[in-house]
């Protein structure tokens, strides 16, 4: 064997090693990616817990950005680098899909929200919310901006259904999103706020307050949908996240935070929520 043959053999071995190293790196990148998720403000607390469980089970990293659904829509159409949208309605994901900003066939309902009237005191019970609204004995009532926030739109449906639009117009305080509406009431800047039921169960300042569950028939069902966005850079990781969100573990957590699931959105009977009177 000449000296040239061992050299050629080592050269081939090195080439194979480089190829294998590249493949290993590629596999690692596929297995662990970063997902940028735009999430509606009402869902930020459960989203954080979902992300923690998802990251632990998959190795992917998730970056959350929260705002009203309307603001997130504007950011997405202006080129914001999100991979997934968790909206507080179904219209926005459908609109993004129609306009080519979302991937067709990836949209699904992950939660159905419930609207409550909330106070940081003990004035509300399961049956006195309507009377308190009609009485008007409060300085300010907070709600998310109905033009950009589905929970705000639902709140305005309730106000109008009760015929209180004119009487309460000077008492209404519009927040950027339902999270800010909650903070207005939590800090005493508003006596009452229309918020998502999940916010009263999150273990944040809600504890010690009281809530009146608004009858479900008083507002359009708040069907919250998720969708993968067109320019998603983390394709595999984004699909893994959406698959996780569809799963039984995520479903249990979503229900724990006071949301219904897709079966309610399709019109199946909904299990009554536990009374939201005085919260612990």
Blueprint (SSEs and pairs):
Layout: H1 4-31, E1 34-40, H2 44-58, E2 61-67, H3 69-77, E3 84-86, H4 91-98, E4 108-113, E5 115-119, H5 129-135, E6 141-144, H6 150-161, H7 165-168, E7 172-175, H8 178-186, E8 192-196, E9 210-213, E10 222-228, H9 235-246, H10 248-256, H11 262-265
Parallel strand pairs: 1-2, 1-3, 6-7, 6-8
Antiparallel strand pairs: 3-10, 4-10, 5-8, 5-9
Describe the structure using short key phrases.
11 helices; disordered C terminus; 5-stranded mixed sheet; alpha/beta; single chain; 10 strands; 280 residues
Structure description:
The protein has 280 residues and is an alpha/beta fold. It has 11 helices and 10 strands. α2 links the parallel β1 (34-40) and β2 (61-67). The longest helix has 28 residues, at 4-31. The radius of gyration is 24 Å and the shape is elongated. 44% of the residues are buried.
């Amino acid at each position: 064997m000449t000296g040239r043959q061992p050299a050629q053999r080592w050269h081939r071995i090195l080439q194979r090693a480089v190829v294998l190293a590249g493949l290993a790196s590629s596999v690692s990148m596929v297995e662990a990616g970063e997902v940028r998720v735009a999430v509606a403000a009402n869902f930020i607390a459960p989203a954080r817990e979902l992300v923690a469980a998802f990251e632990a089970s998959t190795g992917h990293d998730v970056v959350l950005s929260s705002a009203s659904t309307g603001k997130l829509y504007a950011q997405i159409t202006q080129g914001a680098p999100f991979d997934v949208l968790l909206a507080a309605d179904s219209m926005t994901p459908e609109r993004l899909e129609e306009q080519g900003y979302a991937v067709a066939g990836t949209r699904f309902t992950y939660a159905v929200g419930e609207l409550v009237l909330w106070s940081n005191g003990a004035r509300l019970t399961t049956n006195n919310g309507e009377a308190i609204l009609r009485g008007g004995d409060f300085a300010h009532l907070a709600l998310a901006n109905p033009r950009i926030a589905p929970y705000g739109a639902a709140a305005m449906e309730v106000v109008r259904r009760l015929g209180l639009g004119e009487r309460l117009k000077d008492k209404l305080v519009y927040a950027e999103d339902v999270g800010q509406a909650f903070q207005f009431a939590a800090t005493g800047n508003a006596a009452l706020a229309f918020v998502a039921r999940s916010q009263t169960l999150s273990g944040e300042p809600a504890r010690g307050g009281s809530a009146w569950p608004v009858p479900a028939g008083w507002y359009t069902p708040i069907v919250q949908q998720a969708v993968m966005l067109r320019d998603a850079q983390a394709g595999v990781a984004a699909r893994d996240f959406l698959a996780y969100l569809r799963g039984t573990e995520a479903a249990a957590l979503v229900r724990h935070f006071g949301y219904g699931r897709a079966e309610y959105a399709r019109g199946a009977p909904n299990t009554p929520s536990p009374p939201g009177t005085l919260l612990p």
